Amino acid sequence: MPEKVLLVDDEEDFLDTLAERMRDRDMDVETTTSAEEALKRADEESFDAVVLDLMMPGMDGLEVLKALKKRNPDIQVILLTGYASLDKGIEAMKLGAMDFIEKPADLKILTEKIKEAHAQKMMLVEKKIEEKMKKIIQGKAW
Predict the structure, then answer these.
(1) Helical H runs in the chain?
(2) N or C of the chain: less Cβ packing under 10 Å?
(3) Hey, is 51 helix, strand or coil?
């Protein structure tokens, strides 16, 4: 099953190129140049990873990260930035980002991070299923 990824970046050429390269690596990729559209899509669909630009007009990447985590604490978000700073990186990690990568991103590293996000998501899903099963079993009067 291919990793399902949402790429969010206001630089359309960068977005198209990155999406094409991720698709070449057999990933199911959707894109948007808008933070608001990213939030809408994340509400409507489940993604293994959201790869999010830090610096965007309107809502920046940290604001989008906060909104995504508030709506779905288990969502896996990787922030990309051409303007890396230690402060922003620390803030992103405190807000729950899975990783913080500088542009231009090394595709091999980004691919590995997305695969890690997919694996993390699968572990969280399995854990939730186990908890539900445990509650069902404990709730039954055998």
Answers:
(1) 12-24, 35-44, 61-71, 86-94, 107-139
(2) C
(3) strand
